[in-house]
Every structure is written in C-alpha cells, then in structure tokens.
From TrEMBL:
Belongs to the cytochrome P450 family. It comes from the Eukaryota. It comes from Apodemus speciosus. It holds the Pfam family p450. Signal peptide: none annotated. InterPro entries: Cyt_P450, Cyt_P450_E_grp-I, Cyt_P450_sf, Cytochrome_P450_Monoox. This is Cytochrome P450, family 4, subfamily a, polypeptide 29. The keyword Cytoplasm does not apply. Keywords: Heme, Iron, Metal-binding, Monooxygenase, Oxidoreductase.
C-alpha cells in the first residue's frame, strides 16, 4: 500500500524487523526513537512531555500558538480557546458546513461524467478552507479575491509542509542563519508571507472586503482593533450575539488570562494562523481518505447510504432541502448514524490525517514490558503504521473492534481507539467529526463513489496525510428519486 513513499517504506521495514520501536540517528548524539507499538504510544501520550524541538521549524509560519506551546502558557491558551469549541458555538456551524458541501457537490455534478475520474483532495481542501473561514472567522464569500487567494494559500501550505519535512531530515538545514541563505529558506519565507496575507485577508473581510491581499495585510490590525472595540464588555457581546453567532475570533478577543490580560496581537495572530491550518488541512485529509475507503468498500458505502437515506430522505431537492433547512433536526440526525460513524472512524484508523506526533522526554520513561528510555530523547509516535496485533490483543487493549469492519488490520489510531482518543489533545475533534459526517452524508445521497484502479493513491507523510498522486475517484450521479445510477 505504501510502496512508493521512501520514508514510509523505511518505517514499515522497521516495524517488521523491530516490533515496538526503533532508533533513527540524526546527527552527533541526536537520535529519534520511532515508536509504533500502541502500548508504548499510550504511555507517552499519557505523560505531559513537551512537544519536540523540531516543531520550531514551523514557528515562522504558525507562531507560538497552541500547537507548539508547552507548560503553563499552553494551559492558559488552551483554557482561553476551549469555549470557542463549546457545543453551542459549534451548533450553527453544521448548516454553514452543509452549504459549503452542497456548493462543492453542485460543481462535481456539473463536471463529472460517466467515464472520467475526479481528483478530490484539492476541491475538498478548498471546501474545508471555505467552511473554516465562514465558521471561525465569519468570513463572507462574496469577497472578490476569495477563490484565488484560497488557491494560493493552499499552495503555500503544501509548500511549507514539504519544506518543513525536508528541513527536518537534513541536519545542514537546521541552523536558522544557514537555512535563510538557502533556496529552501527563501521559498519558506515567501510561502509564509502568502499564508500570512491570507489570514490578514480574513481579518479584513470581516469589516469591509478589500481587493488585494496587500491591502488586507496592511489593515489587519485595524480590523482586530475594531472587533476588540465591539467586544469590550458583556453588554456589547450580547448586542453582537443578536446580530450574528459569536465566532472563534470573537471568543479569542474577549477571553482573558488568569491575570486579566488579553492575548497580544502576536499571540492572536499565531492562534488564527494555527486554526486556519489545523481547521482545514486535517479534516480535508480525513474526508478525502474516508471517500477513498468507502469507494474501495462498496458494500459498506451502500449500507451507509441506506442509513443516511432513512434519516434525510432520498436526497431529492425537496427532501434534502427540507432536512437542511431544519438545522435542528439535521444536527440531531448527525448523532443517529452509528454505521456511518463507524465507517468514518475505521477509515481514519487506516488513514490517520495526522500520521505522527513528536515529543521530547522530560524525564525517563519505563514501558509496561520493562524497557525504558532516558530523558531528553525525541520520540516520534507513528499512528499510520502501528505494529500489527492479533484481534484478541487489540480487544484487550480497548481498541475498537467493529464487526465486519476490519478493513485491514486491527491496529490502533487516535480517533478510533477509545483508549487513545482521550489522550490525543485535539481541540477541534468535535468540529472535525461534524464536518466529516456532514460531508459524507450529503455526498453519499448524491453520488456513488468508485475507485480508479489505474490511479491508486500513494500515501505520503507530510504534516497531514496526503497522496503523492492525488485521490482519483469515479463519481456516479444517483437518481434522487430511486437512489439508482443515472444513465448507467
Ligand atoms: C480529522 C481531523 C483532525 C485530526 C485527525 C486531528 C488530530 C490532531 C492531533 C493528533 C493533535 C495532537 C498533536 C500533538 O499532540 O502534537 C491535534 C492537536 C490540535 N488540533 Fe487537531 N485534528 C483534527 C482537526 C482539527 C480541527 C478542525 C482543528 C481546529 C479548528 C484542530 C486544531 C488543533 C489544535 C489547535 C491542536 C493543538 C492542541 C493543543 O496542543 O492544545 N484540529 N489534532
């Protein structure tokens, strides 16, 4: 499955040779321990070790936001940002997501024809970016440069991921001064600039759409100031709440640290950049791989479709629109899709959107089998290729064993394995799950998904799990009245 990605090939070979963990030498006395045994991972995730130092390569882009903070500062930011993901805040997002998905599906309907395949990763990423901008930043799509700006942002994110991975692997590029003199360093700087222009544009579009990214960039702090002025006390918040839902940016601006101070502009920027990235790229990866998994398992796809049809109707304009217009019942239906939810989790287990995370051991650790590691070691936890285990062992470890759903191996992954799920500290987990369910439900009502055997995706480990050759699927439009294929 992973044969053409060198890094993955290397790790898979290690998994076969050294079940549990192995060592990767970087330079001098610096080594990374690659961990793929689920029991070892559980021990590490249960500790509060700081995030690894190599993440610092991402700070020119994402600043010092939640992703990279540690200790008390992390705790304070996390406490401030958690209300932005409260159940009530996420509620209205479901309809916004559904709107964005329908726009994407309308386009797919226009361009898909019987014999052609469609690369889905890119349009899904655009759709998720659009969704997160509307939900978290109250961005209005009418802005004239929205589409082009989003395209260049996605390209910049992809460049930054590639550059970061190659910098991690090359010790000569670790020094900042040397790196900035190289072509890689220059490309990183210009990609960072494009990504920052995009978030600047989001700030600006809140008050008045601007026509160029440069203008947007220049005025971002003015717009933040404007929002700050709107959100000075509880009364003004209530007034704003009457006009529109509070979004992520409102909550960020209104929240206070323990000493009563608010986030500085630099900290605010870091959180906005982090959420813009984490909020679109990981769910986009999840959705695309779930589509691929469902396309590869048509019987499971059909069972999901039948479950969704039993809740939302047959997907005909009247039924579909009714289900969507009544936001309350649509949200309610999201919690009533047990089989679809299981399939989503199974696909995320096989293709975890975040393939690995890194930690720096702050104290020695001893694993259940008695082996131990000293403090100061960097460990890389590989969710993508955990060591295979017999079903009985997986069950005793609390992994989700789904009857009839063992698509490959009963190994573990964060979102599908209850014992690990609680320990992976993703603040956007619920938002992501909603996005996955909305997208899968609405898509399966309108299309049958089929794989393209001539272009099997090749997973590659970037910051999120991508495919080297994209994800190509046949989309067969369903007849809304009967659920049958049209014209086939
Ligand atoms: C399928 C979708 C998602 C997956 C698989 C996922 C996975 C993860 C994982 C594994 C971590 C832990 C990283 C570490 O410990 O080093 C994490 C952290 C984080 N995620 Fe997600 N994520 C998803 C969606 C989202 C969304 C939608 C958002 C924001 C809107 C988000 C924002 C974050 C943030 C800010 C952190 C850092 C949290 C902290 O350290 O306190 N994620 N995510």
């Amino acid at each position: 499955m992973f044969k053409e990605d060198q890094n993955l090939t290397w790790i898979l070979r290690c998994v076969e040779k050294f079940p549990g963990a192995c060592l990767r030498w970087i330079w001098g006395s610096k080594v990374f321990i690659q961990v793929y045994d689920p029991d070892y991972m559980k021990v590490i995730l249960g500790r509060a070790d700081p995030k690894a130092d190599i993440y610092r390569f991402l700070t020119p882009w994402l600043g010092h936001g939640l992703f990279f903070l540690n200790g008390h500062k992390w705790f304070e930011h996390r406490r401030m940002l958690t209300p932005a993901f409260h159940y009530d805040i996420l509620k209205p997002y479901v309809e916004i997501m559904a709107d964005s998905v329908q726009v994407m599906l309308d386009k797919w309907e226009q361009i898909s024809c019987q014999d052609s395949t469609l690369e889905i990763f890119h349009p899904v990423s655009l759709m998720m970016l659009d969704t997160i901008m509307k939900c978290a930043f109250s961005y209005q799509r009418q802005c004239p440069i929205g589409q082009g700006n989003s395209q260049s942002y996605l390209q910049a994110v992809s460049d930054l991921s590639n550059l970061m991975i190659s910098r991690m692997k090359n010790v000569f590029l670790h020094n900042d001064i040397i790196y900035n003199l190289t072509s890689h360093g220059r490309r990183t700087n210009s990609a960072c600039q494009i990504a920052h222009e995009h978030t600047g544009f989001v700030y600006s579009s809140v008050s008045a759409p601007l026509t160029t990214p440069e203008l947007a960039m220049a005025s971002q702090y003015r717009v933040v100031k404007l929002r700050k002025a709107q959100l000075q006390d509880k009364e003004s918040i209530e007034k704003l709440r009457g006009k529109r839902c509070l979004d992520f940016l409102d909550i960020l601006l209104f929240s206070r640290m323990e000493d009563g101070s608010s986030l500085s502009d630099k900290e605010l920027r870091a959180e906005v950049d982090s959420f813009m990235f984490g909020g679109h790229d990981t769910p986009a990866s999840g959705i695309s791989w779930v589509f691929y998994a469902l396309a590869s398992h048509p019987d499971h796809q059909q069972r999901c479709r039948e479950e969704i049809q039993s809740l939302l109707g047959d997907g005909s304009p009247s039924h579909g629109q009714l289900a969507l217009q009544d936001g309350h019942s649509f949200r309610h239906h999201l919690h009533q899709m047990p089989y679809t939810t299981m399939c989503i989790k199974e696909a995320l287990r096989l293709y975890p959107p975040v393939p690995c995370v890194c930690r720096e051991l702050s104290s020695p650790v001893t694993f259940p089998d008695g082996r131990s590691l000293p403090r100061g070691i960097t460990v890389v936890l590989h969710f993508l290729c955990p060591s295979p285990q017999p079903k009985s062992v997986a069950k005793s470890r609390g992994c989700l064993i789904l009857p009839g759903l063992q698509w490959i191996l009963p190994n573990t992954a964060m979102l599908s394995c209850p014992s690990l799920e609680d320990q992976v500290n993703c603040i956007g987990k619920q938002l992501a799950m909603n996005a996955l369910k909305v997208t899968v439900a609405l898509t399966l009502l309108r299309f049958e998904l089929l794989p393209d055997p001539t272009r099997v995706p090749i997973p590659i480990q970037q910051l999120v799990l991508k495919s080297k050759n994209g994800i190509h699927l046949h989309l067969r439009k369903l007849n809304s009245a009967t659920g049958d294929h049209e014209g086939v």
